[in-house]
Amino acid sequence: MMKNKKTVYKYFSIPAWRKEEEYLSKMHEKGWKFTGANVPGLYHFERCEPQPVTYRLDYNKEGRRYRGEYVQMFKDCGWEYVCDFVGFSYFRKEGSVGEAREEIFCDETSMLDMMKRVFRGRIIPLILVFLFSVLPQMFIQSVGYSYRADAAGKVLSYVALGLAVVYLVLFAHTAVQFYKYEKSVSGESAGLRRKYAGLIALIVLILAGTGVSFWAINRSVYEVRETTDGYVVTADRLTSTVTKEYDLQKGDFVVFHIDCKYGQFHLSIAEENKKDDPCFFGDYHATTVGSFEIGEAGHYLVEVSGDHAEGQVEYTIRHFSPN
Questions:
Q1: I need a labelling partner for 111 at 20 to 30 A (CA). Which of 79, 88, 198, 256 fits?
Q2: Which contacts of 128-137 are long-range, i.e. CB under 8 A and separated by 24 or more positions?
């Protein structure tokens, strides 16, 4: 038994409503009538008699506010109202898309007005979300806000960076689509090229600035000063690892003094062949004084690392003396 209804996933970017119209028209011609959508990308269809039908989309908040008059206006021109979804109103009329293209707009000005409405209603909100949510989250997570120094904090910072890049690529793609659409309506011109070239250049500049800012926030700024039996790490921002190697004997002590003003310092002591299984590891986000006694003779790695840590770490090797 054949199914009379089906749901199809098909993604169209915001300015690609032309392709969406063509897709719905072709589906109807194959015997599948569009009935609506309730999730982005999921189109619901119902089996029907295959016939040429033209689908058109309109984006008009004012029209949705006065639903009766709005729908009646299109109905008077022969267009059947189908549904509303994510700001767009869907209409259809019998007739092939292969024939002279029939529009729901009476002139080029009306078509450009729709494009501007889409930009104001769909693109500007995305830009605002990017500026006031995605970018701030990237910076907050990157600098270790609230002393967040766990793995989740690092993952969130890269997730925020990834979202920022996705948003900017989406904006660039959308700008190209709007350029193609406006050119198809009003024709090519030097002014049109300059407008969209400037917009693309701005997006590329923001993308480059975002990458440079992320790198600057996450790079280490520190200096290392060796002492007679150890060393001192003074950091404005430590996000990497400083490693020193020592031959230590049983009974030797590693004495450390940590003064953390911001972020978090990590101190690790491990035998060279057991780097992944340190015999001592500590996280510090305040002033701390302590020591660790070496249990077995061997070649040891003493590592100081940080999560956007600011402050100073000093340690000294005190060798065991039987006397």
A1: 198
A2: 129/167, 130/164, 130/167, 130/168, 130/171, 134/160, 134/163, 134/164, 134/167, 135/164, 135/210, 137/163
Distance, CA of 221 to CA of 308 (rounded, Å): 10
Q: Which residues does residue 163 pair with via DSSP β-bridges, in sequence order? A: none
**What is the domain partition of the chain in residue ranges?**
5-94, 108-218, 221-318
Q: What is the DSSP string of 274-306?
A: GTTS-SEEEEESS-EEEEEE--S-EEEEEEEEE
73-116: per-residue pLDDT in tens? 888 888 999 999 888 899 999 876 544 445 665 555 666 677 77
Task: State in Å, rounded, how far the first CA of the chain is from the last one.
Answer: 95
Beta partners for 304? 242, 267
Q: What distances in angstroms separate CA 91 from CA 61, 81, 182, 188, 305, one per listed residue? A: 15, 5, 22, 29, 61
pTM over 0.90: no
pLDDT (tens digit per residue) in 205-222 = 888 888 888 888 778 999
Question: What fold characterizes domain 221-318?
Answer: Jelly Rolls (2.60.120)
Confirm if 238 and 275 have CB atoms less than 8 A apart. no
Residue range 136-142: mean pLDDT, rounded: 67
- Three-state SS letters, 135-197: HHHHHHHHCCHHHCCCHHHHHHHHHHHHHHHHHHHHHHHHHHHHHHHHHHHHCCCHHHHHHHH
**pLDDT value of position 6:** 94
Measuring CA to CA, which residue among 157, 111, 116, 162 is closest to residue 137?
Answer: 157
Measured CA to CA, the distance from residue 163 to residue 204 in angstroms comes to: 15
What is the signed CA dihedral for 12, 13, 14, 16, rounded to 10 degrees?
-70
